[in-house]
Predict the 3D structure of the following.
Amino acid sequence: MFRVLDVDAPVPTTPLAPATVVDGAPEAGSRALAAVAGVEVGVWEMSPGTATDVEVDEVFVVLSGAATVSFEDGESVDLAPGSVVRLRAGEHTTWVVRETLRKIYVA
């Protein structure tokens, strides 16, 4: 038996903490879809703007939107539908979201 996961359902968002916002007034939120072998699978969304974050161990696939995520070491990755990225716990990142970003994550 299987269960269809609705990755298109609305994700509740809230304004990001002011200390993390670099530009604009981005909002973000997530919705858990399932737990598989103790790992969470969910959908995360962020509206346009720039914000910093400290990451958790995660792999994600971008479903829609456009953004760039930059890392402390100077590397940056342009994100578009189909992008697959691995984040490591403790990494400091800066997210520049140009078009509302929606991703499915495994963490």
Summary: The domain at 20-106 is CATH 2.60.120.10 (Jelly Rolls). The first strand starts at residue 14 and ends at 15. The two ends are 24 Å apart (CA to CA). The chain has one domain: 20-106.
